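#dry-run=false #mode=assembly
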Amino acid sequence: MSELATVSVAAGDPTVVVDRVDITYRIYADSAPRLRKAFVRDRRQREHRSVEAVRDVSFVARSGEAVGIVGHNGSGKSTLLRGIAGLVPITTGDIYASSIPVLLGVAAALEPDLSGRRNVLLGGTALGIPRAELEKRFDEIVEFAGVEEFIDLPLRAFSSGMRSRLQFAIATAVTPEILMVDESLSTGDAEFKERSDDRIRGMLAEAGSVFLVSHSMRSIRDVCTRVLWLDHGRLVADGNTDEVVDAYERYMGDLKRKRKQRKHPPEQR
Amino acid sequence: MTPPDHPRPDTGLPEPQRPDLPHDLRGRWPHLRRVGIRLPLREYLRELWRRREFAITVPLGELKAQNQDSALGQVWHLLNPLLLIAVYYLIFGVMLQVEDRRGVDNYLPFLIVGVIVFNYTRSSIQAGARMIVKNRKLVQSINFPRAILPLSAIVSEAIAHLYALPIMLVLVSLVRGGPPPQWTWLLLVVVFVLQSMFNLGISMVVARLSFHFRDVQQLLPFILRLYFYSSGVLIPINTDIIPNPTLVTILQLNPAYLLVEMAREAVLVGPLDPQVWLLGTLWSVAMLVGGFWYFRAAENEYGRV
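#status=ok
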């Protein structure tokens, strides 16, 4: 696997290959298994549900592509990203990637009790960025995130917007080859959005790949060249941005209308 | 139990086809690596090495934070075992007179070495137990070899122990009946290395266990207390104290006992028992290899939300 600092894939080469992937995971009734549960005879207490979050999804993403992923809540978008990032085990199928993807996900990576500064070091070294590099770029990171005044305060003092900006800044401090942004909880303001989009575009110019999960079709149209549409874990469309987003918006619009009609049937109007 | 099937939406677009992938994918595209499976050992170690600075960043930061927290911050780290030694000496040395009754020459140096050496293992186990749970957010967001977490815990404890060792030696040479400095003290380096290996292994075991069962962290203080008493820290393990010879033999196989014994033989004027040192080395290596294997077996689970 290449060192973090350089994107070593030639333009047009595949960066992510997803081949007939299923991701099914179990949820336990109780959030954290207790020792006594292991000894419990009553099957009901040991019950779990299987969730087929991703079902038979296949696609190939190439360098220079910005791939958007759209779909309803719970359609498996975040799970798919986490599977590609290697954070959740895959049930069947194969996933290949040209480097360990960097995921800016819904779950925050930073520790609230530590200062912003410590978090930059922790997060950065966990990503494999050498400390010397982090220290060199420290000011740049803080400035990009716009958190200069707060950087030595514990992360608890940061707003959620500041936290995600800082996370983005750390993750893109050294250009990752594959960046995945899960914007499901959008917490950046318009100005930062522009800056981060710029950075993403810069990455693509350097032949990286970007995946973007978003509920904002405008975000998707702005950045992405190709869009995957997931529905209940299945891939139902894969094509160029305008085509897929148009179809998706049409479909969602239809759904909303049907729901409204059910709530207020014509006779009552 | 699968949820009811939902009908496929009518998208108006062609259904995505599974892409034609070459038979020999890695041959055609050698730059691609498989994701989501366990990395082979060499690659895992390489990724671990790449993140070695994480293992240093964490402890250094904690040291700095401790210094800022309280004036006595760092001192407490050392004061704690010293106070313990004082208390134990008062009870076992002065009141119960273990020294005269149980055939321990020079109880105080015996106690000092035992408490400080055992403490290193005890705090490593406790730190290891917390590691995955404490760093949950990091683990759920970034893909890195999880073994770096217990490793950084051990680095932290090792640094603390390296501060404690010279103090231990000074104390031992100052108290009544303590031996003067001698060349066997250098063997402490060996003990330190072996103990660090052992601690790393066992903290990985505990880290995984407490990830699977949160109760482990509650039980740990009691288990460690029991372990403390069965490791010959306060009272030597021999047939004078424990009449049952089989039990004595079993207890003398306890790795913590062996580590403490090795340290005592190195520091106090004790003959070096090759059996103790051999067993101690075997345990350290076995625990490191076994613990690492056990920990890595669940590598892909730790990131589950």
